[in-house]
Amino acid sequence: MTDRKATLTIDGHAPIELPIYTPTIGHPVVDVGSLGSHGYFTYDPGFAATSSCQSEITYIDGDKGVLLHRGYPIEQLAEHSDYIETCYLLLEGHLPSAAEKIKFENIIRRHTMVSRSMESFFSGFRYDAHPMAMLCGAVGAMSSFYHDSLDITNQEHRTISAHRLIAKMPTLAAMCHKHFVGQPFIYPDNSLGYSENFLRMMFATPCEEYEVHPALAKAMDRIFLLHADHEQNASTSTVRLAGSSGANPFACIAAGIAALWGPAHGGANEAVLTMLAEIGHEDRCAEFVARAKDKNDPFRLMGFGHRVYKNYDPRATVMRQTCDEVLEVLGLENDPLFRLAKKLERIALEDEYFVSKNLYPNVDFYSGIILKALGIPVEMFTVIFATGRTVGWISHWNEMISNPYRIGRPRQLYTGAAQRDYTPVNQR
Ligand code: SDX
To answer: Are the beta carbons of 16 and 8 closer than 8 angstroms?
Structure first.
């Protein structure tokens, strides 16, 4: 912290001194906590300039396109690490030694199965229930299976809950898919790596052997890694707010899943494919780009723009390389849908409106294309995002609960009716 202060003078009254805290890197922050005692609140809808907490997990510089997980650049983690190692890094704060990594991988492997009762839970969903609706319900229901470890003041309970969530999300995600396509659930195979195991649970059937292509398993692992955490985004902030009331970790992650579902957030990857289907052909790109620029048209180019990145999203750069690799491995470089996506990207990157508003392709633009190429149904895209982001959510939850915290309770600018007396209905 620091002894720097900001001075606020209102209507000629005595100046109000507000502490300024200095971060390791990034913007200093002004502590406005004492303003209430002076009769004022701050006002920042959407929290565009509001820090909700102090954190050591992830740092983003939107202007420079920087994303660090515990200080390590996302580009280096994407190139040299894997998802499970990145999970360890986010949870523990440092890269694991070789022995620590093997031990962590084995712990996660030992928790991949879900209770048999969960299968009957899925049978209660409509045959065509949206996978995100099923995932939200299933993860919230997990707290009904682990009464032995819901004491959030107990670090061991917090640790086993984090391990269970990271380990079981792929299993639950694949169960959502299997229910949606009407196929039998496939149990995890603990001889496989995390992402390979997930793809097998997604696409294998009891009728025949199923081999996961190594390049596709690597692409899936990179997608999980690139979605692992992203500072105080809408869903992570939702997890923290739910956690601040003392709710159990499974309920908090279910709240994060619900927040992620929206098309402005994690639902964007699904919305990208829906948009590409609506555009239909390369020749209509210009028409839709014009609509995206038209203030009277609510249409937005899904997969473009970001609240924080006002340059490029470093994850999108890595994801774009992965996208090219997957399309090449699958021989889809000339697939009309992917050619359309590439043309839309080219037009937007050259268009003055998008350039002037720093609307670059974000992580969701390319991840949607890769997931489609991997044969994952569009309805499952946000479930994949939630699976990768679970470690970020639970790491932030654990960071908050492990340190002194208060229940989150924002205030408001009230513009409703002043006090008035009730009038009986026969006098209205
Ligand atoms: C994620 O926060 C995170 O970190 C999120 C995330 C994570 O990892 O957790 O990175 C994941 O959510 C990525 C974003 C995925 N969403 C989309 O791709 C949906 C399309 N994008 C937009 O809806 C929008 O860009 C947001 C929601 C992402 C950002 O919205 P902001 O920061 O509130 O920006 P804004 O809505 O105020 O837009 C600023 C201007 C506006 O024009 P003006 O009113 O200034 O004239 O840019 C325009 C907007 O109309 N604009 C777009 C646009 N996005 C913004 N115009 C056309 N197409 C778009 N996609």
So the answer is: yes
* Co-location of 178 and 291 in the same domain: no
pLDDT in tens, 171-217: 999 999 999 999 999 999 999 999 999 999 999 999 999 999 999 99
Task: For residues 141 and 15, state if they share a domain.
Answer: no
Shared domain check, 177 and 243: yes
The active-site residue, picked from 130, 179, 230, 306, is 306
User: What is the per-residue pLDDT across 362-412, written as a single tens digit (0 to 9) for each?
Assistant: 888 988 889 999 999 999 999 999 999 999 999 999 999 999 999 999 999
Nearest residue CA, atom 13 of ligand 1?
265
Q: Is the CB of 279 under 6 A from ligand 1?
A: no
Tell me the best of 90, 273, 357, 385 to mutate to test the pocket of ligand 1, counting ligand atoms within 8 Å of each CB and taking the most: 357
DSSP secondary structure, 329-388, as one string: HTT-TT-HHHHHHHHHHHHHHH-HHHHHTT--B-HHHHHHHHHHHTT--GGGHHHHHHHH
Domain housing 281 = 267-374
